[in-house]
Structures are given as structure tokens and as C-alpha cells.
Amino acid sequence: MPPEVPHFRSIVTPLVRFSSPVSPEAQECQPHRHKQSRGSKAMNFSRTKLFPFLVLILSIVSVLRLVRIAVTTPPPPPTLGKTCSFSSTCTKFRAETNASANTSGLMKKEYQLLLNLISQKAPCNLLIFGLEPQYMSLSSINAGGITVFLEDDQKKISTLKPNSNTTRVYKVDYQIPAKEAYRLLKHAREHPDCAPSSKLLQRSKCQLALKNLPQEVYQLKWDVVVVDGPSGNAPEEPGRMSAIYSASMIARNANITHVVVHDVDRMIEKWFSWEFLCDENLVSSKGRLWNFRITSQSNSTNFCPAKAIRIE
């Protein structure tokens, strides 16, 4: 029989190591370390959740700012790439004209602007589309000059009498209702007959031209032209499209003419003033009154040179 092998212990280092005994003080510190580790994890987790929350808040603030800008920014003149009807976006005109009808006449600051202008120019040639009691006092200030009123309401003409021999009131008829404003604006942009180089207003083929005014309106060089008529208080009533266009043509026949437009808070007055009198010519304004300074441009084929290059 083979000899018995005596049992012996391996000299290989054991795979499992036993930790040394821990002192009570060390045992008390170990839970504290675990607490710190948990706190740092919680902090990282809260930061991770806080970041998208901040992004959401900033996004909401940005959207609110854009909405405020969109609400407070005035509408631009209409572009003609698509149709516009008073049954859709242009129905805003009804509300605007009704509001202006309730506040007809000049406010104190508006009248003061016009009073200062006439006082500086007097004696001068003053042409006024419209006839209001306040305007009669302007003819007194313009003593020695010529003041001409163009009015379509016979009742106003019969109740207000000229106070001097140099003040004249003429009855005129405006045939185009206010609801045709958009169509006429498109017509003026597309037809060369409406360009400012066409000096003979009374023979113009432009649909906006007033060709049946008294002869002295075409013959005189006017220092100040005021557009506050016709009333334009409803889409079916005569609008001021032709008055503003004709005033711009008359103004370009003189060296320097101030064209003052009232009720520019309304859509038609604003659009047509931008188109034919040009915002770069606007020199002063008060309330609903805009004052444009127009200089003679005999060789110009555009009302507003700054808008000559335009994408339709």
C-alpha cells in the first residue's frame, strides 16, 4: 500500500481577506460618510430637474415679450400680393371710423399745431378739404392770404359763412366710397398715370385724381393743404383716398407745401398718407394729426424715393 501522505497547510495567501476590527469611533464616522454621499446625489438630482424648469420659464417670458411687441406695433401699409376685403381684415375700418365719428373736430393740441403752422406761414395760400367751425378761425389768422374750403356737405356750407373776401367755400362731390380704398391703392401702384410726374391733375387718367375741382385749386401754388374731408365715416360713404392723393399732387406743384392730414388713427388716412406723402416727409404730429413737408420733385417718378425698390 502506498504510504500515507501527511496533511499539511497550503502556503498560498487566502483569497478572502478579513478586515481588521473597527474601533467604535470609526464606526460612528462611517454612517456620516454615507449621509454626505446621499446629500451630494440629491443635490445633483435637484440641479438636473431645475435646469429644464428654468428653460421653460425663460421660454414663457420670451413668448410674452413677442406677444406684447405684436400687440403694440402699428400695422404696416397693405401689401398687394393677396386680396383684401372689408368682410375680413378690413372690417377693422368700421370700428375705426365709428370711433372717429364720435370724436370729430380737432383736439386742443391738434388745433394748436395747425394754428402755429398757419401763423408762421401767413399770409399764405391755404387749401382745406373739409369745413369745420374751428377752421374758420384759421382764415382770420390768414388775413391777407387766400383760404379755400372744399366741402361736400351742403348743410355745413349753408351754416358757415366766409368771414372775409379772400375766403371762399366750394361745393364738391366725392364719388368713390371708402370701401374702394384697397382697390384704388392697388390701381395707383400699378398704373403710371398715377405717378407724381403727371402734373396735370385735372386731365389725369388716374382713378384717384380729383378732376372737377375749381380752377384756382389747380392754378395756385399752395403753402398749406389740410385734408379733413370728406367724412369717410362708413365704408359706403365717400372716403379720403382721392383727397390725400390729390393733395400730394397739388403739393408737388409748389416749392414747399405742408400737407396736414387729420384722423390718421383710421386705416385709410394712415395707408394713403404713408403711400403718397411718405413717412420721411413727416415733420410733426399731434394726436390724430400728421404734418408732412413736401418739396417739388419735378423729375421724380415715385412719391417716396425710399420705397422706389419694392417687392410686390
Kindly describe this structure:
There is one protein chain. With 312 residues, this protein is an alpha/beta fold. It has a domain at 92-307: Rossmann fold, CATH 3.40.50. Helices cover 40% and strands 12% of the residues. The protein is built from 9 helices and 7 strands. It has helices at residues 24-72, 92-101, 108-121, 133-141, 154-159, 181-190, 215-219, 241-251, 267-276; strands at residues 125-129, 146-151, 167-171, 224-227, 256-262, 282-286, 289-295. Strands 3-2-1-4-5-7-6 form a 7-stranded mixed sheet, with helices on both faces. Strand 1 (125-129), helix 4 and strand 2 (146-151) form a beta-alpha-beta unit. Helix 8 runs parallel beside helix 9 (267-276). The protein is elongated. The termini are far apart. Mean pLDDT is 78; it is low at 1-20 and 81-103.
